[in-house]
Amino acid sequence: TGNLIWKFLTGGEINSSPVVVKDRIFIGSLDNCLYALTKNGELIWKFRTGGELSNTPAVCNNSVYFGSQDGKFYCVSADDGRLIWKFNTTALPIGSKGSPLITNSNLETLFDFSTRSLEKSPKAESGFIYFGCWDNNIYAISLDGNLRWKFLTGGTCALYGAMNNKKLYFP
After folding, report:
1. How many CA atoms lie within 13 A of 141 on its CB side?
2. DSSP structure string for 79-140
3. Distance separating alpha carbons of residues 140 and 148, to the nearest angstrom
4. What burial letters (b/e) apply to 74-113, b meaning 16+ CB within 10 Å?
5. Alpha-carbon dihedral of residues 87, 88, 93, 95, nearest 10 degrees?
6. CA 153 from centroid of its chain's CA atoms
7. What is the dihedral of CA 42, 47, 48, 51, to 10 degrees?
8. Which residues contact 51 (CB under 8 A, 6 or more apart)?
9. What angle do CA 157, 142, 165 make, to 5 degrees?
């Protein structure tokens, strides 16, 4: 009908897309916070970082993964926003477009960029997260927050990557 059903005000602009998983909506804001809302727009919890959140988070195995302009990549509980781990990069994680790429140990894509929804539900210890960073590296970290590898590129990886036939593509 085109009628406004509800709205939620954050303390800053929102430059990313929301992610809807089950009965929750997750959205980052330039006020340094990640928000979890009900489908009626009511606040469930918010998690504050040391920098702006301009990227779309990814959700897998009841955890929310996202980068912040404070130079850290975070994993928080989707239930209560509790910090599970944070990964320090040497520069700001890229966050202006897209979301992190999550795969299982067989390098099958678990997070579909076009629908922003979880396709599969692997065990957390079997998966990986890939994201580009302003330090010219592509990072691969496990879903428990440990560095698996990083690859120095010839320049900044300005967008998140894509996976096809077990090959990782970054612009």
Report:
1. 24
2. TT--EEEEEE-SSPBP-SSS--EEE-TT--B-EETTTTEE-----GGG-EEEEEBTTSEEEE
3. 5
4. bbbebeebeebbbbebeebbbbeebbbbbbbeebebbbeb
5. 50
6. 21
7. -100
8. 32, 68, 69, 70, 71, 72, 92
9. 65
**DSSP letter, residue 157:** -
Q: Nearest-CA neighbor of 108 among 128, 138, 132?
A: 128
Q: Cβ of 40: how many Cβ atoms within 10 Å?
A: 10
pLDDT tens column, 19-69:
899 899 999 999 999 999 999 999 999 999 999 888 888 888 899 988 888
Query: What is the token pair recorded at 69?
Result: 């302009």
Nearest to 87 by CA among 100, 105, 98: 100
The model's pLDDT over 136-161, given as tens digits with 9 standing for 90+, comes to 777 788 888 888 888 887 777 655 55
Would you state the structure tokens that stand for residue 167, as one six-digit string?
Answer: 């090959």
Contact status, residue 71 vs residue 51, Cβ threshold 8 Å: yes
Q: Look up residue 108 and give its two tokens.
A: 């099958």
